Amino acid sequence: MLDVKNSYRQVIKATTLFGGVQVLNIIIAIIRSKFLAIFIGPIGMGISGLLYTTLNLVNGVTNFGLGRSSVKDISFAYNNSDNNSIERTITILKRLVWFTSIFGAIVMIITSPWLSEIAFKSKEYTVSIIWISIALIFKQLTSSHLAVLQGLRKLKRLAKANLIGNFIGLLVTIPLYYYFRIDAIVPAIIISSLISFIISFYYSNKVNIGVVNISNKDVFNEGKSMLQLGFTLSLSSMITLLGAYLLQIYISAKGGLNEIGFYTAGYVILNSYVGLVFKAMSTDYFPRLSAIFDDIKKLRKAVFEQAYIAVLIIMPIIILFLTFMPFIIRILYTNEFTPIIAMVNWGILGMVFKAVSFSLGYVIIAKGDSKVFIKTAIIFNIVLLSANVIGYYFGGLEGLGISFFIYYIIHLISIAIIVYYLYNLYFDREFYPIFLISVILCIVTFLVTYINDSMIKRSILAVLIVSSLYFSYYMLNKKMDIKELLFKGFKKLKC
Question: Which stretch of 38-47, 51-60, 200-209, 352-361 has the lowest confidence by average pLDDT?
């Protein structure tokens, strides 16, 4: 019983830790954007944005996804307490990243005239792109250090490396923008990446891991599976980006730039604000699954715990967002963006289904099943793009939201079938009532937002908020004794 309680607490602690980090990183990004808007204006922000997009594009193509795929191998070795395997895996990762980062920088330098032409419609920024190839090297090296911390479950150090790197980068680059304005863009990109590298190197090196003497031939032979899975993950990300790009082109052609702006704003709320819950969870969830991918009983238990907690955390968040959506949009944007309310409400309603498919979907990656993963990624992205185009064609922005909602349901059903038949993975019966009640509470809240009488609407929404929070607390408390956890936390603070 104690092991079960600790297992649930580990999930909650990791989610809270990285959820807080994500929130603080968003605040840092908002502050950075504000200062950039003041010091370099719209033109400077446009240049900066395009250079960052170019950097991320080349990085995505050339890093072979090692920052994610290596976590699987490191976690597995760590779980088996195999120090030799841990040291060998980390040595292979770091050597491979040196190759990919130099390869990426060379690709960026060679293609810089074309990249400048594509991004800026001229070769004026060729030299700037050559310079930021230095940032690409630091970016890839940083990802290897963070992967080591994630794979070894050094979650506090990982959180500190992420947060401190971003914060110091902000403090150092703001004076640059103040004194040098637009001329500071390229140096700021390079310096920010250098700072992130130094911080990640510092925290990664605090872990005492020996270096193994291994030839380059053996590095590539033994790192083949890491490269294959990483390449698959990178390809999947590129397919997702392509799908989003094609949708934007369609919306632009049919609805114009205004509609693109609305879609982008709504998408940010769904993925950056509500979606940060999933990003926070995945930081600990992926290495946990990777460590036990060959034990089906442990795998079922881990997936059940993650889905159980994911649903109970996301459900009250969905209800709060649905209740306060008009206010949230006015805070984040302006009154001009109220047309996205219907789109975002439908999309957020689908997040309760995404919470479950998220928990199931990571099993495919943890298993290292590259062929299944890439096939499902292609099919799901085609389904999503098709649904979005049809939804927007018939219903505009609201239709787009409905298409997201329907897609999340289809995705959940499909993933559940896939992992059941491939890996014999399924939930205990205990999960389904929790999920059903959560879905009902979310749908009822969604329907109540359409009531015209503001007094009745507010009263019912208040009851639903309290009910959802109590239900989540009650069900989580049964598994992990939240009172005891809070008591221990307060006791530590007093000491």
Answer: 38-47
* Count of structural domains within the chain: 2
- Among 124, 164, 127, CA closest to 21: 164
When the pLDDT of each residue in the chain is averaged and rounded to a whole number, the result is 89
Residue 188 or 495, more confident: 188
At CB < 8 A and 24+ separation, what contacts does 56-62 make? 58/104, 58/107, 58/108, 58/111, 58/115, 58/136, 59/104, 59/136, 59/139, 59/140, 60/234, 60/237, 60/238, 60/241, 61/104, 61/107, 61/234, 61/238, 62/100, 62/103, 62/104, 62/107, 62/136, 62/140
Structure letter (DSSP) for residue 430 = T
Same domain, 307 and 372: yes
What is the rounded distance in angstroms from the CA atom of residue 151 to the CA atom of residue 71? 5
Is 271 part of any domain?
A: yes
The rounded distance, in Å, linking the Cα atoms of 148 and 74 is 7
| Claim to verify: residue 351 and residue 395 sit in the same structural domain | yes
Structure tokens at 192: 């920010």
**Within a 10 A sphere around the Cβ of 183, how many other Cβ atoms?**
13
Domain hosting 212: range is 17-222
pLDDT digits (tens, 9 = 90+) for 134-164: 999 999 999 999 999 999 989 899 999 999 9
pLDDT at 108: 96
Whole-Å CA distances, 351 to 216, 274, 280, 420? 45, 8, 15, 22
Same domain, 204 and 277: no
The two counts, helices (H) then strands (E), for the chain are 19, 0
Q: Report the SS3 class of residue 212.
A: coil
Is 198 among the domain residues? Answer: yes
